[in-house]
Amino acid sequence: MKEEVWHVHVQRVSYKETDQMRVVHHANYVNWFEIGRTEWMRESGLPYSKVESLGLLLPVLDLQVKYFKSAFYDDCVAIYTRLNALSAIRLGFYYEARKIENREMTFPQNTDTIEKPEGELLATGSTQHMWVNAEWKPVRVPQKAPEIFALLKERYRY
What predicted TM-score, i.e. pTM, was given to this entire model? Predict the structure, then answer.
């Protein structure tokens, strides 16, 4: 296995993400993972707008979330994302949501040089995706968009 490299996205829990007890509603972690994934793609040179302009879509086939601790209103949270599966027609991501200290909010908003997630583990998750065309038919990305597959292979660490 190659050295892990994580993308990190740092944010503060907003009031709208919480319930009456100031606890982050569980569904928000799924949104945070999507933010992590889209920012990972952007930092990899693959913003969704570019992918879609090539006639490719990337729907979610599977989503898993495991919760460990609650986050609360105004907490600082880092969403760590890495690519953990890659084939010609599928790819997968792994995520960690971690509570960080206020002083750590100075993390770069987008970086691919984080080697180890930091902070108190709140939740982990994974998503599996399949490349499809506009008609929702599976697509083999190495043939349809070799430049995208090359970028993904470069970022794939396993």
Answer: 0.90
